[in-house]
């Protein structure tokens, strides 16, 4: 390459625009020849989850005058919803407890409030008000919790949400949805809108890779099988956990191992029958989540599977103390036990424990519970 870099005389780093002998045009104007190897390994990014949600919310508001948007300085709603429906947009500021209480009052008056804050603030800072004012009164409030898991890893531990699903699962009959594909956010939002009670929608902060293929359907309350396989089952919730599960399944397929991948996007109500069907007769079950081991997806699956099927379970979740150093979302997950490699290791360990004799009766019989004592026998 010959030519003189055209660089402004400034102190800050700049991009050099270089003309070559073979093509006198500046590099920026030259045709780009992609590297096939690089293109092959770069996954397609999905839509920005918050932008996808805002688009769905605007559609709902246009068709239902009961929709009220309650903001807490999250950014992005004031110049979208606020501009189109200024009389139905309220920004309460960084006051999450007040946010929940205002939403409860509006719901009592017949509105359908959509409240917006980060997942850790919705369930920790405002958890008592979510519990008492909204869930305790069975009010149709939609809690839109962004920055779920470690998707705001660059902000530090104050913005991690690794306990929110444990909190929300413990609240009575609160609908909980964790889309694993940003293309499903619109569908999830519309289905939650029709529920009579409260709902919690957990979203990430930024765009993440999406599974290949057309936009999959999301049916509220129904587990979705993304890969069929008879050897081991991988159950995931959330974008990156689902991506890790699919990557591991694809790698095992090359080895002749059939890994069934299940997107368990709805944590309440849980698709008990679908989950049992997906896990029955397999060497074991691996769960993958962007959450602490306690109270999240792994516990939800274990509560169902361990009570009905005699299959071993391995739970991959965020362990240890993340946040000592600032990293991106995927790096934090990989450093704390949630990765494609971790899924592969857990699945292979379960397969190694499976008896060699495949002619034995499938290990899928329900565990027999002792008969309850009658009153006369006590």
Automatic annotation (TrEMBL):
Biased composition (Basic and acidic residues): 354-364
Cross-referenced SUPFAM superfamilies: Thiamin diphosphate-binding fold (THDP-binding), TK C-terminal domain-like
Keyword annotations of the record: Thiamine pyrophosphate
Cofactor: thiamine diphosphate
Pfam families recorded: Transket_pyr, Transketolase_C
Annotated GO MF terms: magnesium ion binding
Protein name: Transketolase-like pyrimidine-binding domain-containing protein
Organism taxonomic ancestry: Bacteria, Bacillati, Actinomycetota, Actinomycetes, Mycobacteriales
InterPro entries tied to this protein: PDH/Transketolase, THDP-binding, Transketo_C/PFOR_II, Transketolase-like_Pyr-bd, Transketolase_C
Highest taxon of source: Bacteria
UniProt keyword annotation of Methyltransferase present: no
Domain Transketolase-like pyrimidine-binding: 47-210
Family: Belongs to the transketolase family.
Annotated region (Disordered), positions in chain: 21-45, 354-378
């Amino acid at each position: 390459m010959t030519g003189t870099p055209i660089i402004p005389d400034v102190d800050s780093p700049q991009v050099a625009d270089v003309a070559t002998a073979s093509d006198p045009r500046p590099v920026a104007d030259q045709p780009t020849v992609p590297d096939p190897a690089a293109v092959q390994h770069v996954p397609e990014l999905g839509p920005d989850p918050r932008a996808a949600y805002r688009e769905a919310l605007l559609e709902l508001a246009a068709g239902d005058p009961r929709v009220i948007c309650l903001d807490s300085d999250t950014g992005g709603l004031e110049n979208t919803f606020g501009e189109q429906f200024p009389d139905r947009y309220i920004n309460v500021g960084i006051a999450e407890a007040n946010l929940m209480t205002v939403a409860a009052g509006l719901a009592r008056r017949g509105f359908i409030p959509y409240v917006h804050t980060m997942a850790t603030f919705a369930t920790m800072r405002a958890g008592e008000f979510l519990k008492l004012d909204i869930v305790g009164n069975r009010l149709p409030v939609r809690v839109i919790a962004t920055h779920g898991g470690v998707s705001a890893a660059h902000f530090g531990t104050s913005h991690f949400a690794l306990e929110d699903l444990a909190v929300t699962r413990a609240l009575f009959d609160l609908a909980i949805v964790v889309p694993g594909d940003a293309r499903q956010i619109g569908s999830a939002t519309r289905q939650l809108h029709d529920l009579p009670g409260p709902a919690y929608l957990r979203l990430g902060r930024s765009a993440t890779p999406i599974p290949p293929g057309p936009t999959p359907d999301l049916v509220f309350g129904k587990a979705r099988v993304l890969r069929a396989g008879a050897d081991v089952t991988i159950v995931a919730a959330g974008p990156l956990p689902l991506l890790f599960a699919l990557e591991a399944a694809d790698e095992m397929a090359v080895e002749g191992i059939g890994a069934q991948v299940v997107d368990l996007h709805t944590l309440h109500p849980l698709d008990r029958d679908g989950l049992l069907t997906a896990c029955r007769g397999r060497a074991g079950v691996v769960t993958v989540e962007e959450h602490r081991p306690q109270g999240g997806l792994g516990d939800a699956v274990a509560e169902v599977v361990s009570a009905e099927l005699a299959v071993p379970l391995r739970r991959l979740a965020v362990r240890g103390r993340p946040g000592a150093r600032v990293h991106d979302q995927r790096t934090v997950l990989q450093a704390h036990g949630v990765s494609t490699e971790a899924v592969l290791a857990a699945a292979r360990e379960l397969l190694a424990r499976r008896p060699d004799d495949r002619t034995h009766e499938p290990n899928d019989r329900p565990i027999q519970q002792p008969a309850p004592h009658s009153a006369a026998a006590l």
